[in-house]
Design brief:
Blueprint (H helix, E strand, L loop, with lengths): L2 H4 L5 E2 L2 H6 L10 E6 L4 H14 L2 E5 L12 E7 L6 E4 L4 E3 L5 H8 L16 H7 L17 E6 L4 E5 L14 E5 L1
Parallel strand pairs: 2-4, 3-4
Antiparallel strand pairs: 1-2, 5-6, 7-8, 7-9
Length: 186
């Protein structure tokens, strides 16, 4: 299996320009990017995990790349940009379900009179999945960290298993920077 068997040419890149762009994040730390893929659904992520296990390739999940600590800088890795998984799935009276690539400001606009209270300085571009992976906190620290508001997660773990978890089992994914799995939805 090749990457082209999983991702169309519009959803994968090995161009030098993209590899250069994705070799760093807002931290300014340089890494080495082997290529970039933009999954659109859990099935593509599942196939990707099978591909990387068979080909001994490492992955680096990426939200918007706005963190300042180098969390999504690749080290001879394939970057998984989650920006195409950006749908708001459901808005309830006291909850919202979103895909990992939803941008925080887009979510807050859709919520109208309600809002997600953790507002990092990068709120215009940061993604919910990235905020969960980093357990981000906001400009107003009295609202706490992102993880305090997560009720459930959907992830693909390192073994390629699709997991749907509730609040009692999500602690191994919040703040782990994608090392324990790729967040699909919350």
């Amino acid at each position: 299996m090749r990457l082209s068997d999983i991702f169309s040419s519009a959803n994968r890149s090995e161009t030098e320009v993209d590899k250069l762009i994705y070799s760093r994040d807002a931290s300014g730390i340089d890494g080495e990017c082997l290529g970039v893929v933009w999954p659109r659904n859990a099935e593509e992520l599942h196939k990707l995990l099978s591909y990387v296990r068979r080909n001994d390739v490492t992955l680096v999940p990426r939200g918007a790349g706005t963190a300042l600590k180098g969390q999504c800088v690749p080290n001879k890795s394939l970057v998984v940009d989650m920006s195409k998984m950006n749908k708001i799935l459901e808005i309830g009276d006291d909850y919202v379900e979103v895909q990992a690539g939803v941008v925080l400001d887009d979510l807050n606009r859709a919520l109208g009179d309600m809002f997600f209270p953790v507002i990092p300085y990068t709120h215009k571009v940061c993604t919910i999945g990235g905020m969960i992976a980093a357990n981000a906190h906001g400009l107003h620290s009295y609202y706490g960290k992102t993880g305090q508001y997560v009720l459930a997660l959907e992830v693909i773990d390192g073994a390629g298993r699709y997991l749907k978890m509730n609040a009692s089992t999500i602690k191994n994914f919040i703040g782990f920077e994608g090392t324990s799995g790729i967040i699909i939805a919350a």
